[in-house]
Design a protein that fits this description.
Layout: H1 2-20, H2 24-36, H3 42-49, H4 57-71, H5 78-98, H6 104-113, H7 115-149, H8 152-159, H9 167-181, H10 185-192, H11 199-211, H12 221-266, H13 268-276, H14 278-301
C-alpha cells in the first residue's frame, strides 16, 4: 500500500513538472538559489562579512562546491549536482518511508542529499594534487629560465609548449596580456595570481613581482619552488597512513549495514524488533546519522597536506 502511494506521489510530481513546463534542473537551480540568497537582516550580513558568524553548513557546502566547480572549469555542472542532490533526497525519504521508519526519514533524506556535494569535494582534492604536480614542473622550468634571462615574459613564452593545462592556460593568458593588452608586468602578475588556488604559487607570484624592482631577490625563487617537491614527498609518504582511516571507516559502515540482512536470517524476532519497534527505529536512525556524520569528518580529516603561509 505504501509503495503504491509513493508511486502515485511520484506520478503527481512528474505531472506537475510536465504541466508547468519545468525541468528538474531548473527547479533545483531555483530552490538552491532561494536557500542561498534568502532575505537576511543587516546584523547577519555584518557578522558574516566580519567573520563573526559562520554561514550555515548547507550554505558553506553549496558555496564550496560552486567554487570548486568554477576553479576546475566545470561550473556548468553545478545545476546537475543540485538536481542530483534533490534526487538523492527523494530516494532517501522514499527508502525510509518504505521501511516505515519515521525517525529515519530526515536522516536518510538529508544524508543522501549531501552525497553529490561531498563527492565533488573529494574529486577536488585529486584535482588540486594534479595541479600541484603540474605546478612543480612549470614553476621549476620557468624559474630556471628566468634566473638565466631575467625576463619573465621570455621565460614563460619559451616554456609554454612544455606545460599542460590548467597551468599552461594561466601562463598563456599572462603572455597574451603582456603582448597585446598591457605590458605592465606587476599588474599582469597580480591578475595571474588568483587564477590558481595554491599557496606556493601565490608566494611565487609575490616573489617574482618583488624581483621586478630588486633583481637580487631572484635567489628566493628556487626555495619557494622546492616547497612543492617537499609537499609532494610528504603526501606520498603519508598516503598509506591517510588511506587507513578511510578503509577502517568503510569496513565498519559496511559491517553496520550488513547486520540488517544478517539479523533477518539469524533471528527474525530481533529483526522485527529492530525494524518495527520505536526503540529499534531510533537505533537505526542513530546508526544512519552516525555513518553520515563520521563519513564527513573522515573526509575532512584525511585530506592531503597543503602548504599554508
Amino acid at each position: 500500500m505504501i509503495a503504491a502511494e509513493l508511486f502515485a506521489c511520484a506520478g503527481l510530481i512528474a505531472g506537475a513538472f510536465l504541466l508547468l513546463g519545468l525541468s528538474p534542473v531548473e527547479f533545483a537551480d531555483g530552490l538552491f538559489a532561494f536557500l542561498l540568497n534568502r532575505p537576511r537582516n543587516i546584523r547577519d550580513e555584518i557578522n558574516e562579512t566580519t567573520k563573526r558568524k559562520k554561514p550555515s553548513f548547507l550554505r558553506r557546502t553549496v558555496e564550496e562546491t560552486w567554487e570548486i566547480l568554477r576553479m576546475t572549469g566545470r561550473s556548468e555542472r553545478f545545476s546537475i549536482v543540485c538536481a542530483a542532490s534533490l534526487l538523492f533526497f527523494a530516494l532517501g525519504a522514499c527508502a525510509a518511508i518504505l521501511m516505515e521508519n519515521v525517525f529515519l526519514v530526515p536522516v536518510l533524506a538529508a544524508g543522501l542529499a549531501f552525497l553529490p556535494f561531498l563527492y565533488i569535494r573529494l574529486t577536488a582534492e585529486h584535482f588540486k594534487k594534479a595541479v600541484a604536480a603540474e605546478l612543480e614542473t612549470a614553476l621549476s622550468i620557468v624559474t630556471t629560465a628566468y634566473l638565466r634571462s631575467e625576463d619573465l615574459l621570455t621565460s614563460v613564452e619559451e616554456n609554454l609548449p612544455y606545460l599542460n593545462p590548467p597551468v599552461q592556460t594561466v601562463f598563456a593568458e599572462f603572455s597574451t596580456r603582456m603582448r597585446f593588452i598591457d605590458p605592465d608586468v606587476d599588474a599582469a602578475i597580480g591578475e595571474m595570481k588568483p587564477k590558481i588556488q595554491n599557496e606556493v604559487f601565490g608566494e611565487w607570484c609575490d616573489a617574482v613581482a618583488a624581483c621586478q624592482f630588486d633583481r637580487s631577490l631572484k635567489s628566493t625563487l628556487t626555495p619557494i619552488v622546492s616547497k612543492l617537491s617537499d609537499i609532494r614527498v610528504v603526501n606520498a609518504e603519508l598516503d598509506y597512513l591517510v588511506f587507513e582511516p578511510r578503509k577502517a571507516f568503510i569496513v565498519m559502515a559496511l559491517l553496520v549495514i550488513g547486520n540488517l540482512p544478517l539479523m533477518y536470517f539469524l533471528n527474525r524476532d530481533w529483526f522485527h524488533v529492530l525494524m518495527h519497534s520505536v526503540a529499534g527505529q531510533l537505533v537505526l536512525a542513530a546508526c544512519a546519522a552516525a555513518i553520515f556524520i563520521c563519513g564527513a569528518f573522515v573526509m575532512k580529516l584525511t585530506r592531503p597536506i597543503r602548504y599554508r603561509r
